[in-house]
Design brief:
The protein contains 4 helices and 4 strands. It is α+β, with helices and mostly antiparallel strands. It folds into 2 domains: 63 residues; 102 residues, 2-Layer Sandwich (Alpha-Beta Plaits), CATH 3.30.70. Helix 3 runs antiparallel to helix 4.
């Protein structure tokens, strides 16, 4: 009987030993593997999100027709001459009959922050003109049909004491390169 009891105790010790030294490390190893699988799945989801966004951007780029892309490359200048644009704005104001109160080259607004090195470089001009409704409308028409892709980014109009309108605007134009540096400026945008 003592032999059977000793055998049972030995078997119990052997089972406890197996649990402690074989099964428990296996469970720990399984837990580590499960953690690695979870981390892999999370990283894979992040990669899928990035790939999805990249596909969206590529698809939007692919929607630009070849003729529009050629027109953009042809129409948008490599650099901008700030003085020439200010002079052209002056000529547009003369031709439309408005009084040019101010035209100033300024930095582009912060929300135009462009980080893509291939994106066009923005240039901003604050312009203030005074004239009748027809004259201001004529001036805006000339801004729209000029030699530069000028965009009216901000526009404020108010009446003056002389029954005229004072229009203050922020005009944005773009170039392929930073005109001040003469090189592509992907790292040092406004």
């Amino acid at each position: 009987m003592s032999n059977s009891f000793t055998t049972q105790v030995a078997m119990a010790v052997l089972v406890v030993g197996m649990l402690l030294f074989y099964v428990k490390p296996a469970f720990v190893e399984i837990g580590v593997t499960q953690d690695e699988i979870l981390q892999y799945q999370q990283e894979r989801e992040k990669v899928n999100e990035v790939n999805s966004r990249l596909n969206e951007l590529v698809n939007s780029m692919n929607t630009i027709t070849a003729s529009n892309m050629k027109a953009l490359v042809t129409f948008m200048p490599d650099t901008i001459d700030h003085v020439a644009i200010a002079r052209d704005i002056f000529y547009m104001s003369e031709q439309s009959g408005v009084s040019l109160d101010d035209v100033t080259y300024t930095t582009a607004p912060r929300n135009l922050d462009i980080e893509d090195i291939n994106a066009p470089f923005p240039h901003a001009f604050t312009v203030s003109v005074t004239g009748t409704y027809a004259e201001v409308k004529s001036f805006l028409g000339r801004v729209e049909r000029n030699n530069y892709p000028l965009e009216v980014y901000e526009f404020k109009i108010s009446p003056t004491e002389l029954n005229e309108l004072k229009a203050e605007m922020l005009l944005i134009t773009y170039s392929h390169y930073d005109s001040d540096a003469g090189t592509l400026d992907g790292n040092n945008r406004n």
